Amino acid sequence: MLRYFCFLALFLNVKSASAPFIKPCKDGDNACILASSQAVIPVLAPGVPELGVQPLDPLKVPRITSNQGSLKLTFTDTVLTGLKGCKIESIKHDRIKGKQTLLLRCDMVLDGDYVLDGQLLILPVQGKGRYKIDIRDIVIKTVTDLTTEQGPDGKEHWKIVKWRDSFQVKTGVKFHFDNLFNGNKVLADPVIEFANTNWNDVMQEIAPPIVHTIIASVFKEIEALYKAVPADELYIP
């Protein structure tokens, strides 16, 4: 993702006088790429309509599902906020091999509708209603394979071949689910207390599909950027 932010930074520097703070970087100059990419995050977050890039903060995620172990989870109409405040921790990129590794540290809030049914670690859980998850200090790692392909304009464009992600929550997370057990607080309150006390274990249980879906949504917009902007306009050879 860092490489993608740098690509946008270079594009804005070349095409837009409104972003003179964006510094283009040579391939392999990781210090320059890090600084330039960090600077462009708040520019990218609200979207770039002229390039077909939709807003990333707030990010609308229609559906997140998980059926891991004994817990079935569905989140719908989720709105994610916080990506504009993410900090890029490190980047390793090899343009020749088309391989990139990114570490991104964020605080984020998810707000939407939920359906839960099954067992959350050691406790039964069931409910349907509104949910909110406040995640503090999550570090997301993405490893991406990139290639180039010829676009309709006859020029080479970057293309995402595949990617994988992992994460670790460093500080904490707070869970809130309305209407657990049809509003029975005697049953619901212990589940919420347990989830917030054991947030790290709970995050490992429910967060992988959440993080994966968020990254997929971000990459969808990055792909729109790649289709709009030729590769030779996105870096200094």
Please describe the topology of this protein.
Layout: H1 2-15, H2 30-44, E1 59-68, E2 71-81, E3 87-94, E4 99-120, E5 123-150, E6 156-177, H3 185-197, H4 199-228
Antiparallel strand pairs: 1-2, 2-4, 3-4, 4-5, 5-6
Average pLDDT, all residues: 83
Structural class category: alpha+beta
Helix-strand sequence: HHEEEEEEHH
List the total number of helices: 4
**N/C terminus separation:** 20 Å
Radius of gyration: 20 Å
Low-confidence stretches: 1-22
Number of strands: 6
Q: Any idea what the shape is?
A: elongated
The biggest beta sheet reads: 6 strands, antiparallel
The percentage of residues in β strands lies in 35-45%
- Please give the share of residues in helix: 25-40%
